[in-house]
Amino acid sequence: NAGVTQTPKFRILKIGQSMTLQCTQDMNHNYMYWYRQDPGMGLKLIYYSVGAGITDKGEVPNGYNVSRSTTEDFPLRLELAAPSQTSVYFCASSPLGTSGGVFYEQYFGPGTRLTVT
Amino acid sequence: AQSVTQLGSHVSVSEGALVLLRCNYSSSVPPYLFWYVQYPNQGLQLLLKYTTGATLVKGINGFEAEFKKSETSFHLTKPSAHMSDAAEYFCAVSDRYGGSQGNLIFGKGTKLSVKP
Q: Rounded distance, CA B108 to CA B116, Å?
């Protein structure tokens, strides 16, 4: 199993350009998440999805959009790239969130390093 | 709102020395608690977690953490550091009663260096 895969690994964008960060998981997980990691700031949740067709905002959703048409894929779209979106982006998945007092582990992809200049 | 504080953005220890990485959370209700490790240019990997039961939790690679409700802390320790432990460590919490999404709130991270 590949687990959680992300493409591309690196990308440089010019201000105002758009792009889609791809995330795919092969574990049949219902829940998927997008985080951004800025130096010295930890990870912050951008969007999450609890199943195909269902998405919701996290802590820092402005400037991003997501869709979840299949269980496997959870792409993150940047419509008008800004320097403030320079970051490392991580996708994660888990079978469920919490259920019956059990917290299900999130499995992380290797990340996409994005620079906007 | 939940928050997580990790004391020390950088910690340096000698090989064989005790590793102690500090984490405090703010919540009136004890949340679920986690430690993740991130090796250079890789994603995050779960080290250990506390959800319920025994307050001393053992994880992978010889790490353990103790949940102390009275101190709202969840410090990570390892008795003897190894060179391969050099990485960035993140403490995270998830609201126990805030819904079933399993959203994590991360601390800012502590970079651990191990000197030979």
A: 26
Half-sphere exposure of A25 (CA within 13 A, CB side): 26
pLDDT of residue B100: 57
Cβ–Cβ of A48/B41 closer than 8 Å?
A: no
**Extended beta strands in chain B, E state:** 3-7, 10-14, 19-26, 32-38, 44-50, 56-58, 64-68, 73-78, 87-94, 105-106, 110-115
Q: What is the DSSP letter of A73?
A: B
Among residues B16, B21, B34, the alpha carbon closest in space to that of B88 is found at B21
Instruction: Decide if A31 contacts A94 (C-beta within 8 A).
Output: yes
Residue of A33, A34, A43 to mutate for B, most B C-beta atoms under 10 A: A43
Using a CB-CB cut-off of 8 Å, the residues of chain B touching A4 are 43
Asked if the Cβ–Cβ distance from A90 to B46 is below 8 Å, we say no
Beta-ladder partners of B19:
B78
Inter-residue contact A76 to A47 (CB < 8 Å) = yes
A10-22 pLDDT, tens digit each: 999 999 999 999 9
| Nearest C-alpha neighbor of B81 from the set B10, B14, B11, B9 | B14
Strand partners, B37: B45, B89
> pLDDT grade, residue B17 (50/70/90)?
very high
Higher pLDDT, B36 or A104: B36
Contact list, B41 vs chain A (CB under 8 Å): 110-111
